[in-house]
Specification:
CATH architecture of the largest domain: Up-down Bundle
Largest sheet: 7 strands, mixed
Strand content: 5-15%
Oligomer: single chain
Number of strands: 9
Order of helices and strands: HHHHHHEHEEEEEEHEEHHHH
Distance between the termini: 51 Å
Structural class: alpha+beta
Number of domains: 3
Length: about 400
């Protein structure tokens, strides 16, 4: 399958992918296109389109990060482009995959034992098992490294978990949730694979969201939840290990932000060719072209930044500050671009009929999750100055 250049990829940077990677992206793009027909109604109904999960899994996108489930050797740059492709159709679909593949499978891939990887990664890649990632809490978000309140207590050959989590994507329909909790014995953060059928576990959907409405975020309560030692992530002994997972996924969130920009931009360009004012399509108006050109510039710069961060990941030179800068920069540009694209559409930019409004609203969630803009700026600031200024 031949990969055609996206209108939003002005410099044709997808051509830097290998031939096999380009074929895979072309296949993913073809699989995503039919999903455009369902996302608006599900967004309005505040529901996730569960029937698209098998089609997403069939593309191989859920397993391309791990040797146990890869269908072909895939670079981090390819994985970023995959996130972009999904987000330019819908940010909620991209977020679902980010949670399933990046956070849930990523925790097991980065911190699990060989036995845990063999047991869980193929099931997550096939969509047989749906995963979620439980780090954020009602009273702990940006300060999770120190402020985690969920506790883990060893009791014989099991662990007892108590606490609460908030904003946990996929949690209302997940089969397992990776729960991060502080060990009362050594005050270190550890990770656990928690089946959602475990007694004492409950997940309640968060209502009345204005962004990522299809994503089923939940409040989780853990009351005396017992999990065996075999479900403790064997290579997660402190928050540094949690941070390893976030370092990998934060860069892919940056790519997803570019996808949101690209989706809004492409929708706005289509609109300007169809909408007529003063006897001609508004695509011929100077101020409209100015907004589109600024949007394309932001997208192009963001692709270049993300591609370099992903190359560094492949080389093993990527550090926290590199992915933090990518996430902060791209999400800030995303906010600008979706605003300009909404402006291009005038009053029609606030209804979802033309797609731009959905991207405009969903951008607010990407701006905040996986580390707020300010926290990522401070991670970069610490790298610049050698001084932490988080409080």
């Amino acid at each position: 399958m031949t990969l055609t250049q996206l209108p939003s990829d002005f410099y044709g940077m997808e051509s830097q992918l290998t031939e096999r990677e380009q074929e895979a992206i072309a296949g993913l793009r073809a699989a995503m296109e039919p999903m455009r027909a369902v996302v608006d109604e599900h967004w309005h109904r505040d529901e996730f389109p569960m029937d698209v999960i098998p089609a997403i899994a069939a593309t191989g996108v859920l397993g391309h990060s791990w040797e146990e489930t890869q269908t072909f050797p895939a670079s981090a740059v390819y994985r970023g482009w995959a996130a972009l492709e999904m987000a330019r159709v819908d940010a909620s679909l991209s977020t679902f995959v980010g949670v399933q593949n990046g956070l849930a499978a990523g925790s097991i891939g980065a911190c699990g034992s060989p036995e845990q990887r063999t047991e869980w990664l193929p099931r997550l890649a096939s969509g047989e098992v749906i995963g979620a990632f439980g780090l954020t809490e009602p009273l702990s978000g940006s300060d999770s490294a120190r402020g985690l309140r969920t506790t883990a207590r060893r009791d014989g050959d099991a662990w007892v978990l108590d606490g609460a989590k908030r904003w946990i994507g996929n949690a209302t329909f997940a089969d397992v949730v990776i729960i991060w909790a502080k060990d009362v014995a050594d005050d270190q953060v550890k990770g656990f694979i928690v089946p959602t059928t475990t007694p004492g576990f409950s997940a309640t959907k968060i209502e009345r969201k204005i962004a990522l409405r299809m994503v089923q975020n939940a409040d989780i309560v853990l009351e005396g939840v017992r999990v065996p030692e075999s479900l403790r992530l064997q290579r997660a002994d402190s928050f540094r290990d949690t941070a390893r997972v976030l370092r990998l996924t934060r860069a892919e969130v940056a790519w997803a932000a570019v996808g949101v920009m690209a989706g809004a931009y492409e929708a706005a360009v289509r609109y300007t060719g169809e909408r007529e004012q003063f006897g001609q399509p508004i695509a011929g108006h100077q101020l409209v072209q100015d907004l589109l050109a600024k949007s394309l510039g932001a997208i192009t710069a963001s692709i270049a930044l993300c591609a370099q961060v992903s190359r560094m990941q492949d080389e093993g030179t990527q550090e926290d500050a590199h992915s933090a800068l990518a996430k902060a920069f791209t999400t800030a540009r995303m906010r600008e671009v979706v605003g300009w694209c909404r402006e291009v559409c005038g009053g029609n930019g606030i209804v979802t009929d033309h797609d731009v409004a959905r991207f405009f609203a969903d951008a607010e969630a990407l701006y905040s999750y996986e580390g707020t803009f300010q926290m990522n700026q401070l991670i970069v600031g610490r790298a610049i100055t050698g001084r932490a200024a988080f409080a």
